[in-house]
Specification:
The complex is a heterodimer of chains A (about 425) and B (about 475). Chain A has about 425 residues and is α/β, with parallel strands linked by helices. Chain A has helices at about 30-40, 65-75, 80-100, 105, 120-135, 145-155, 175-185, 205-220, 240, 245-250, 280-295, 305-315, 320-350, 355-360, 370-380, 400-415, and strands at about 45, 110-115, 140-145, 160-165, 165, 170-175, 190-195, 225-230, 255-260, 275-280, 365, 385, 390-395. Chain B folds into three domains: about 5-65, no CATH class; about 80-110 and about 380-470, Aspartate Aminotransferase, domain 1 (Alpha-Beta Complex); about 135-370, 3-Layer(aba) Sandwich (Aspartate Aminotransferase, domain 2). Chain B is globular, with a radius of gyration of 29 Å. Chain B is built from 16 helices and 19 strands. The chains are: A alpha/beta (about 425), B alpha/beta (about 475). At the A-B interface, helix 2, helix 3, helix 5, helix 6 and helix 8 of A face strand 6, helix 2, helix 5, helix 6 and helix 8 of B.
């Protein structure tokens, strides 16, 4: 039955339920922690979930260099052309950050660089590119790694495998097993590496170990793909944190590299990052870049300008850049201090367990070694939130809550025999 | 004891042969194998290679640069739309005119940042808001206002919580999320796209692995809508296809169905059990009225159809570079909407984790504040008004100058930023080569890039190309 009513048609009772086959998706293991945290009304609650920096009052921080940059660019008249420039500058400056101010790679333009949607977007662009141009390839991901790495390569339809990384016994790097996996992988395999501040473990190879890995990669002709989400955030020194990358480049590897400005510039929500792929020469770099842009065009056309302008403004202004470097050190010093304090507190409480890994590990995260059951207890009894793998975001710890945290950890582990 | 490994050169890759000690603590020494001492032996790599010697207290090795993994990567085809602007920039002729990309320009042919946007940004700057991650689905305040803007705040679909809205990276990103959802939950289902349509639609569905086919749309004989062809093709498609429709201001033709035609399209879609999929990139920009431009979407929602709608704020708020839009899925129940939203999030997380905050805040501030919202509506009327004036002037110039009696009134009937001139590829090329008028080869001109002052020149160019080039 059809009738005209107010010039429009009435609701049909026969609407097709197209989406009946759509189940509810599992919650993201990291981001859902924050959701649960917000829903908790306890005054003692602590969020050690997402890797986002907090100050000593537990508040999000916008860096002063960012505020200054923002004041400079707000209300800009020529957004469109600026956007193109901002983009170009961002890529140039990102490359210098990663490869060094005077790197030949940068000077000779031997890399394809594109602005990307932070680290995730850059990884995804590369994964799509990898599938398109090396369809037979897989990606080797460290065990463990940031959980979203698995999602990214899976959705890009590139099969993944894992390689040994973390040693739960030592709570450090399982170097021997890592090298075995590198050697046993078929030649020309693609490997994802965290150049500094490994997420989630905080365990990084030493310089010597990096050199050995690089050497073995040459022997096996593997493709090194670096995801650098924490440059400057690991040691407080930008060059030092990029050392692994520079070792590989010096050794002649033509690497892929992802950079994110989410943490080190606190630009999380702006989604600013960069993907670079080193090429034989500038001509090839142009071809590779064109393909990356082609992939991006069908995903989001162009990347967002605001964050890119902030980054390029900061990096190109000596005063702002110096300010940034100082502010980075402040963040790193605070998280380091929290590591020291947490460990000290646990030891003073008389914990039977060894907590050296808290200060041995580096960067934003500590792989505590807590079991899923212990993690649940911390949440249910103490309103302390962390991911189920026992990863603690150090940035969520403050002088105000570290004692409470140490006490809670002690409570749930004191009867454990060692693990 | 040192143990050494010698790897023989595989036939596939021309790489250096390396001899190395695995025990790095052994001091440098020559290694003897059989009768020949081993020093550095290597084969030169093909093509570019650089050889460096390194020694870290071990046997020194010589290393050749790998041949790139990506040797076979060819240059991607230039984007047909964005490539036009590049060519324009390279042109040094004074008379040049860029009618390529659909980005609004003032009468002085300058980019335009809306006043409400500047005000919103200043407000945001003063408030000093943080830059934390948005949730995967985007800024809640933005999602709320964008759905209300599209459907009307009182619309039952909103009141009943039946719309899954997820912030997306402008129109493209929102379309891509929808395409990924279709691929995952309706594998094999086709999307029907208009012939012609925005060039990037095909790229999006191709990359998302969603098959597509075209329905007739543009009739070159009338320079208008081939309505019978459109209906017939939609009817002929397998039941349960997705039909991509431009909510208003069709890109590239500027030709929209009439209200009566929209009703018939809705009938056919319902009959065939298809799913309507709207791309709304110009709400407010077509007629100057936000509500009028949403009437096609609202009609379909009122029919009780489940539908998808991608939105963009690139043009109507001038936020091109901020990448702000949304994907909306109208479902038959709020439960379905919740489930669909969760799956959209799951698709977004491995693409970019969460969307950029800046543009979302601007929209939320402008649309959420009555004073700013009114001001926006006025600015939009000005922008749409300028385009209408330019259409009129172009039509007047063409009618005055063209003595052939050709009917140019389609220019006035078309709506929005673009006009399909009816020029073919060769004629469009003439526009560029002879007259330095940059446009896409399908005959599309962006009126947003045309000033009143240049209408006569453009009319001359069009008349010349139409009549003198075949």
């Amino acid at each position: 039955m059809m009738w005209r009513y107010l010039g429009r048609r009435p609701m049909s009772t026969l609407a097709t339920d197209w989406w009946h086959n759509v189940g509810i998706a599992p919650k993201d293991p990291i981001l859902s922690i924050t959701e649960a945290f917000f829903a908790d009304s306890s005054p003692n609650k602590i969020n050690l979930g997402v890797g986002a920096y907090r100050d000593d009052e537990g508040k999000p921080v916008v860096l002063q260099c960012v505020r200054d940059a923002e004041a400079k660019i707000t209300g800009c008249e020529f957004l469109e052309s600026l956007s193109r420039q901002g983009n170009v500058k961002l890529v140039e400056e990102s490359a210098k950050l990663a490869y060094g101010e005077n790197s030949d790679v940068v000077k000779e333009g031997r890399f394809a660089g594109v602005q990307a949607l932070s680290g995730t977007g850059a990884c995804r662009l590369f994964a799509e590119f990898q599938r398109r141009f090396r369809p037979e390839s897989q990606i080797y991901l460290p065990s463990p790694t940031w959980s979203n790495h698995h999602n990214i390569w899976r959705d890009a339809r590139v099969p993944s495998r894992t390689y040994h990384y973390y040693d739960p016994e030592s709570k450090g790097l399982h170097f021997g097993a890592l090298m075995d996996d590198v050697k046993n992988a078929p030649d020309h395999s693609f490997f994802l590496l965290h150049p500094c501040a490994h997420n989630p473990t905080g365990v990084d190879p030493t310089e010597e170990q990096w050199r050995e890995i690089s050497h073995q990669f040459k022997v096996k002709n593997h493709f090194p793909f670096f995801d650098m989400a924490y440059q400057g955030f690991a040691s407080g020194n930008l060059s030092k944190d990029a050392q692994a990358i520079r070792i590989f480049v010096e050794d002649g590897h033509l690497i892929g590299c992802v950079q994110s400005f989410s943490k080190n510039m606190g630009l999380y929500g702006q989604r600013v990052g960069c993907l670079s792929v080193l090429c034989m020469n500038a001509k090839q770099a142009i071809a590779v870049k064109s393909q990356l842009q082609h992939i991006a065009r069908a995903m989001y056309s162009n990347p967002p300008v605001h964050g890119a302008l902030l980054v390029s403004t900061i990096l190109c202004d000596p005063h702002l850049r110096n300010l940034w470097v100082e502010e980075l050190k402040v963040m790193v010093n605070r998280t380091t201090k929290m590591r020291v304090t947490l460990q000290k507190n646990l030891e003073e409480l008389g914990s039977p367990l060894n907590w050296d890994h808290i200060t041995n590990q580096i960067g934003m995260f500590c792989y505590s070694g807590l079991t899923p059951e212990q993690v649940d207890q911390l949440r249910n009894k103490f309103h302390i939130y962390m991911t189920h793998d026992g990863r603690i975001s150090m940035a969520g710890i403050t002088t105000g809550n570290v004692a409470y945290l140490a006490n809670a950890i002690h409570e749930v582990t004191k009867s454990a025999e060692g693990y | 004891m040192a143990s050494s490994t010698i790897l023989s050169l595989g036939s596939a890759s021309p790489l250096a042969l390396l001899a190395v000690s695995e025990n790095s603590k052994v001091p440098p020494q020559k290694v003897k194998f059989g009768s020949s001492g081993l020093t550095n032996s290597f084969l030169k790599a093909k093509g570019n290679s650089s050889l460096k010697s390194q020694s870290f207290g071990r046997i020194s090795m010589t290393v050749a640069v790998n041949v790139s993994r990506f040797e076979g990567v060819t240059m991607a085809p230039p984007d047909p739309i964005l490539g036009v602007s590049e060519a324009f920039r390279a042109d040094t002729n004074d008379a040049k005119l860029n009618l390529g990309v659909g980005a609004y320009r003032t009468e002085e042919l300058q980019p335009y940042v809306l006043n409400v946007v500047k005000k919103a940004e200043n407000l945001m700057l003063e408030r000093g808001e943080n830059k934390e991650y948005l949730p995967i689905e985007g800024l809640a305040a933005f999602n709320k206002v964008t759905a209300e803007l599209l459907f009307g705040a009182d619309n039952p679909v909103i009141r009943e919580g039946r719309v899954a809205t997820v912030q997306g990276l402008s129109g493209t990103g929102s379309l891509r999320l929808a395409a990924a959802l279709i691929e995952r939950y309706f594998p094999g289902s086709k999307v029907l796209i208009s012939s012609p349509t925005w060039g990037n639609h095909k790229n999006i569905f191709n990359d998302a692995k969603v098959p597509w086919s075209e329905y007739r749309y543009y009739d070159p004989k009338t320079v208008g809508l081939d309505f019978d062809g459109m209906i017939s093709d939609i009817k002929a498609a397998p039941a349960g296809s997705f039909v991509l429709l431009h909510g208003c201001a069709h890109n590239p033709t500027g030709i929209d169905p009439t209200p009566e035609q929209w009703e018939k399209i809705a009938d056919v879609i319902q009959e065939k059990n298809h799913i309507p999929f709207f791309d709304v990139a110009y709400q407010g920009f077509a007629s100057g009225s936000l509500d009028a431009d949403a009437s096609s979407v609202r009609l379909f929602a009122a029919c009780g159809l489940e539908l998808l709608v991608a939105q963009s704020y690139s043009k109507n708020l001038g936020l091109y570079a901020e990448r702000i839009g949304a994907i909306n899925v109208v479902c038959s129940s709020s439960d379905a909407a919740a489930r669909v939203k969760s799956q959209l999030k799951r698709l977004a997380r491995p693409m970019y984790s969460n969307p950029p905050v800046h543009g979302a805040r601007i929209v939320a501030n402008v649309v959420g504040d009555p004073a700013l919202f009114n001001e926006w509506r006025e600015e939009m009327e000005l922008m749409a008004g300028r385009i209408k004036n330019v259409r009129q002037k172009l039509f007047d110039s063409l009618s005055a100058k063209d003595k052939s009696g050709k009917d140019w009134s389609f220019i006035l009937k078309q709506i929005g930023m673009f006009s399909f001139t009816g020029l073919n590829k060769a004629q469009s090329e003439n526009m560029t080569n002879k007259w330095h008028v940059y446009m896409t080869k399908d005959g599309r001109i962006s009126l947003a890039g045309l000033s009143l002052a240049k209408c006569e020149y453009l009319a001359d160019a069009i008349i010349d190309s139409y009549h003198n080039v075949s």
